[in-house]
Specification:
Layout lengths: L1 H18 L11 E11 L4 E4 L5 H15 L4 E2 L6 E6 L9 E5 L3 E6 L2 H16 L3 E2 L2 E11 L5 E7 L7 H13 L4 E5 L15 H4 L18 H13 L3 E8 L4 H6 L4 E3 L8 E2 L4 H17 L4 E5 L14 H9 L5 H18 L3 E5 L12 E5 L5 H9 L3 E4 L2 H4 L22 H6 L9 H4 L2 E8 L7 H8 L2 H10 L7 H17 L32
Parallel strand pairs: 2-3, 2-4, 4-6, 9-10, 9-18, 10-11, 11-14, 14-15, 15-16, 16-17, 17-18
Antiparallel strand pairs: 1-8, 5-6, 5-8, 7-8, 12-13
Helix pairs in contact: 2-3, 4-6, 8-10
Keywords: Glycosidase, Hydrolase, Signal
Organism: Niabella soli DSM 19437
Pfam families: Glyco_hydro_20, Glyco_hydro_20b
Length: 537
Amino acid sequence: MRCILFLSLFLFSGLINFAQEQCPLIPKPLEAVKTNEGFVLNKYTGLIVDVPELKDAGTYLQQQLLRLKQLPVGRASSSKNTIRLSIKKTSKADESYELIIAKEGITVTGNSLAGVTNGVSSLLQLIVLQKTENGDLHLSGWKIKDAPAYGWRGFMLDESRHFMGKEKVKQLLDWMALYKLNRFHWHLTDEPGWRIEIKRYPKLALLGGLGNYTNPTAAAAYYTQEDIEELVHYAALRNITVIPEIDMPGHATAANRAYPQYSGGGNTQHPDFTFDPGNERTYGYLTNILREVNVLFPSGMLHLGGDEVSFGTDKWLQNEGIKKLMQQHAIKDLKGVEHYFMERMADSVFSMHARLLAWDEMADLNLPKDKTIIFWWRHDKPGQLKMALDKGYRTVICPRLPYYFDFVQDSAHRMGRKWGKGFASLPDVYNYKVTTVVTDKRQQAQVLGIQANLWTETVTNLNRMDYMVFPRIAALAEAAWTKNELKNYDAFTVRLKEQLPLYRADDIYFYNPFNPAEIPEPVFFRKDTRNLSAQEN
């Protein structure tokens, strides 16, 4: 009897340990229970899409299975050996999902297309972590219930300073999707280069697209409108919304190189840095640009930058148009001119039925709270975040430390930003908590989510981009998706180790935090590459 009791306890204990085995997914799901019933995925597996609105999720799954595992999954001819995508009959259209992998088949259920696509992304990650044997892929049994902590889980790529190209952006979008990041903020214009075709003003791309941060004579590089449409659709299949940034009134050097009649001047370090607020035609010109951009990006969101304008306003007080503007509108100083400009452009954005997005400098203005989103980036200016929240603005948290990925991730790294002892290590990215900077529970509801930004002054090639993004993008994903009480850095690193072979398989030149010497830091220095000031974006 004692032996039977001991055996029963042993088996029961084994079942508990089996069920509690850590799910390998990044980001960590809300609930995940391992079962003893796995599924064999093979060329005979069929796909069932219950409703037409899930067609895109089905297409995404089929395309990725073929690309990642060479498995051609077609429409199911029976109810056996299937992957079923379903949507719940509920009015709650959130991003939650349920994923069940059982002997009979796989089911992904959500409250919306976004939720089902998230479930598909989790399924794909479990699939790529497994090796195919004789054409079969043996998946462990799982029952997963999951939902994100934040609705905005973003990544920004600056392609003005160095252009990465369509195929690299697609690869980035693939990994964003696998990690359930859902906002791609695309910084397409700045001082070194203008990277988007505007048909009404072709010189913006042809002349403004010349050069980059380290080589001002480089050939023009930009995305055609056809490229944009392709990438926006590619992202949408993966539940990623693309938000374009057309920076103004500062960071306008490339645009002013193409159409100097709209320049407000600059200085030696930042030539032709601003658009001209004193020229009435400037507003029509920029509005025409934004109209074309708004049509290309169905997100209904336009990011206008609005940061660091004072870097290049040296000539504004000598500008007769600006002096006249200040007299007519009783504007006391150049900050007031800057605000006047942004209010005018905000009206243009709102007239297109789009929302205005801007960096935290624009929290100074009193724009419509339901149409404006503020991005808090200056970690050393918490008062700016408090102002935005006190005014009722919805806010995205993307502080330079730890979410500017051009900061190095190891103290030994030689290229990239490092302010004293300050840099963006993997644990810093992972452990960041919004609640430490937004302590008021009512205002925490105004925080849409978290975003990392990759500025590319020191990201001169594709290897360098990989090195700065991976594996920190995985830590970012878990910081944005997983509830704080479920996060554990040590457990995360166990799962992260399993991801490294996937990076290698996708030809990603990543930083290995477990063996830093394995993959050398890609370093590129030029004598004329200027140093970044502590204030600059």
